[in-house]
Every structure is written in C-alpha cells, then in structure tokens.
Design goal:
Number of helices: 6
CATH architecture of the domain at 51-130: Roll
Mean pLDDT: 84
Low-confidence stretches: 17-29, 31-44
Helix content: 25-40%
Distance between the termini: 80 Å
CATH superfamily of the domain at 51-130: Beta-grasp domain
Number of strands: 5
Radius of gyration: 25 Å
Largest sheet: 5 strands, mixed
Oligomer: single chain
Shape: globular
CATH topology of the domain at 51-130: Ubiquitin-like (UB roll)
Length: 207
C-alpha cells in the first residue's frame, strides 16, 4: 500500500501553516530576576556594549580600586600579568586544568585564565600579592614555609589562593576538606601532604 500522495498544493499549504505557527511563538525574554542566574554565569549589564576595541573596566584588586582599558577577549590572567604587571598569578596550562592561575573573585577561587577580565567588573579580586601585609607574610604563607609545602613554586600561588578561599568560608576545616579545595591544583613536586598539614595548622588543627 502506498502512503498519502503529496501534491504541490498540499506542500505549500503545510509550509504556510508552519510559518504562521512560528510567527505566533512568544520570543524569549531576558531573565527578569538576575538573582536566579546560575552560579558562575555573569548576567549581562544593561546599557553596556563591549568591543571590538578596548573598553573601560573598574574593579577592586587586592583592596585597591583599579581602572583598566582592555579588550573584551582579554582574560583576567592576561590583564593581571601583561597589563597590570601583577605577576604573582602564574599561567601554566592556560586551559583551567592546573590551578596555577587561581585567584579569588569575591572570595571564591576561580581560574583566571578561564575568566574574562570584564567578568570581574565591579567585583573584588585577590591575588597572591594580596595575602601579605607589606613585608609581613599571612598566616597561611608562613604555614606553607614552616611545613615545607612548596618546592619549585610553579603551583604555589594558585595553591595558596585555593587554600585561602577554603579558610575564608569560616567553616570547620578537616583534611578531606583541604584535599577537595586543592583537587584542581596540580603539583608536580608532590607537596600535597605538606599543603594539607599547613592549612590544618592555620585552621587550628594538628597537621
């Protein structure tokens, strides 16, 4: 048995119906409640157009207001290192896999090589330079030295920032929690046990 015969008339009638239905569809509307935006997604800023050339950017860096002029495609890591000469943040894999470029954005650890510079507009960024007070190392930095938690140093700044992000949560810290916090930080020298001991010592627990 053969199916229903499609004629030119029925074909164009079907196309016309589909066009009418598509035209009646309700267009998608912007999210009216930015508070429901998923974590890690920065909602668009109304009235701000970026690109293709450099655009102004203002944010807080290590406690000081910072203004820069940078292209929309610039990563936070490149802005810090190449434009602001804040070189404590290291770039190793440049794909968010090693953790060496970790900084704190509003107190939360983020890979700066995978974060666009303009995504931190109006926010607070802390790099490893922001841990010490002048020449006085922070408690976490001193603990890293005392527990021999660093060797070649490639991972150290990112490791410190991941651990600082953990301590900043003001929650009880145990060994498993430290391991989870540094799970995205790769250390070729294998200093992980020393890092755990250092963080626990700062948190008031025996290493």
């Amino acid at each position: 048995m053969s199916g229903p015969r499609i004629t030119r008339r029925t074909l164009f009638r079907g196309l016309g119906s589909a066009t009418v239905v598509a035209g009646c569809a309700t267009p998608a509307k912007p999210n009216p409640n930015p508070e429901t935006t998923p974590p890690g997604v920065t909602p668009p800023v109304d009235g701000v157009a970026l690109g293709p050339g450099p655009s102004p950017l203002q944010f807080t860096l290590n406690g000081a207001s910072k203004t820069a002029e940078t292209a929309p495609s610039t990563t936070l890591a490149d802005l810090l290192r190449l434009e602001l000469n804040v070189t404590g943040t290291k770039v190793v894999c440049d794909r968010g896999s090693c953790g060496a470029c970790t900084v704190l954005v509003d107190g939360v650890a983020r890979p700066s090589c995978m974060t666009l510079a303009h995504d931190v507009a109006g926010r607070t960024v802390t790099t490893v330079e922001g841990l010490a007070q002048g020449n006085e190392l922070s408690a976490l930095q001193r603990a890293f030295v005392e527990h021999d938690a660093l060797q070649c140093g490639y991972c150290t700044s990112g490791m410190l920032m991941s651990c600082q992000g953990l301590l900043a949560r003001k929650q009880p810290v145990d060994a498993d929690g430290v391991k989870r916090a540094i799970s995205g930080n790769l250390c070729r020298c294998g200093t992980y046990p020393h890092v755990v001991a250092a963080v626990l010592s700062v948190a008031g627990k025996a290493g």
